[in-house]
Automatic annotation (TrEMBL):
<dbReference type="InterPro" id="IPR000415">
    <property type="entry name" value="Nitroreductase-like"/>
</dbReference>
<protein>
    <submittedName>
        <fullName>NAD(P)H nitroreductase</fullName>
    </submittedName>
</protein>
<dbReference type="GO" id="GO:0016491">
    <property type="term" value="F:oxidoreductase activity"/>
</dbReference>
<feature type="domain" description="Nitroreductase">
    <location>
        <begin position="8"/>
        <end position="185"/>
    </location>
</feature>
<dbReference type="InterPro" id="IPR029479">
    <property type="entry name" value="Nitroreductase"/>
</dbReference>
<dbReference type="Pfam" id="PF00881">
    <property type="entry name" value="Nitroreductase"/>
</dbReference>
<keyword id="KW-0560">Oxidoreductase</keyword>
<comment type="similarity">
    <text>Belongs to the nitroreductase family.</text>
</comment>
Length: 208
């Protein structure tokens, strides 16, 4: 299916076949492809926390306002951003790997690494939160498209108590939770939704 086709057909699905299992090979392959998404300075800050323990899912259900997809979907993924990805050491390491793989020479390696270090060094926590949100959101959309292409249904969720979720899953302040994504085989089609006419959302050169 083309990307355009998936965009036309995809719906947020809220009811899943809880007996359907997605193999860890398929899941790894979806995540591996999603990780090819564009990301700021290629610092690769997105983390995919797969929650497949039914007990944890049951604990998360009330935290996510009893949204049944939390327990019914084959997979529940907490999409996280890792603040440690901004560390100088990580930036240097990633660019060294690119150099060793032969993707660029020493001078481009140093230029890219130094540009990235400079870009992040004076940013506030709030700025870094926005950087993580950008990267994790792009990876999330990729994952959603890939999962739909593979024949699964998906839903994105921000309807959960972030603090309680982090407590239950022991997620430290090192990580920013951006959203939850559930993936599985839907048992009830998602309802259709309208979209603004393109003329309402597309502007040229200025917006008022
Ligand atoms: C960031 C984000 C958070 C969302 N959170 C929830 C949620 O907690 N529960 C829910 O039922 N749908 C949630 N949705 C799904 C939206 O309601 C849905 O995408 C929108 O109504 C458009 O419908 P469609 O996805 O079927 O095209 C969320 C979507 C996004 C992008």
């Amino acid at each position: 299916m083309s990307v355009k086709n998936i965009m036309e057909k995809r719906r947020s699905v809220r009811h899943y076949d809880s007996s359907y299992k997605i193999s860890s090979e398929i899941l790894s392959s979806l995540v591996e492809s999603a990780s090819k998404s564009p990301n700021g300075n290629n610092i690769q800050a997105t983390r995919y926390l797969i929650i497949d323990d039914p007990d944890l899912r049951n604990l998360l259900l009330p935290i996510a306002f009893n949204q049944q997809q939390v327990i019914e979907a084959s997979t529940l993924i907490v999409m996280l951003g890792d603040y440690q990805a901004f560390d100088k050491g990580n930036i240097i390491k990633i660019h060294e790997e690119g150099f060793k793989a032969g993707y660029f020479d020493e001078s481009l390696r140093d230029y890219l690494a130094n540009a990235a270090i400079k870009y992040y060094e004076n940013k506030s926590k709030e700025d870094l939160k926005l950087e993580l949100t950008r990267d994790v959101s792009l990876a999330s959309m990729s994952l959603i498209l890939l999962a739909n292409e593979a024949g699964f249904d998906t839903i994105t969720m921000s309807g959960y108590d972030s603090k309680k979720l982090k407590d239950i899953l022991n997620i430290s302040e090192r990580y920013l939770d951006v959203m939850l994504i559930a993936i599985g085989k839907g048992t009830k089609a998602g309802h259709k939704t309208v979209r603004h006419n393109v003329n309402k959302v597309m502007y040229r050169n200025k917006i008022i």
